[in-house]
Amino acid sequence: MAYLLLLVAGLLEVGWAFSMKLSDGFSRLGPTILTFALMAASFALLSLAMRSLPLGTAYAIWTGIGALGAFLVGILILGESASPMRLLAAALILGGLVLMKLSSSS
């Protein structure tokens, strides 16, 4: 259950990162409000997951999901570069997440 909470928290992190981009430096009210609402929900779920997961594991996976998700949103929605070097970097982050999960005792 903790990993499911962590997954949803990470996806919400992607959502708030994207809405922050849409807020245009917090100058647009709707996306700004959405950013802070998604942040609060993401942090709340992360804190619940941390009840039973080690800090390092939970935080690394949460930030990794957010980083990879934001990377994909950037490419698929915002038209950012998908250069071989960026794709390799994303693959290394994914590999780190898998190793973190496999090395966790929870």
Automatic annotation (TrEMBL):
One Gene Ontology MF term: transmembrane transporter activity
Record has Cell membrane as a keyword: yes
Gene Ontology annotations for the cellular component aspect, listed alphabetically: plasma membrane
Entry-linked InterPro entries: EmrE-like, Small_drug/metabolite_transptr, Small_multidrug_res
Keywords assigned: Cell membrane, Membrane, Transmembrane, Transmembrane helix, Transport
Subcellular localization(s) per the UniProt record: Cell membrane
Entry similarity comment: Belongs to the drug/metabolite transporter (DMT) superfamily. Small multidrug resistance (SMR) (TC 2.A.7.1) family. Gdx/SugE subfamily.
Name this protein carries in UniProt: Guanidinium exporter
Biological source species: Aureimonas ureilytica
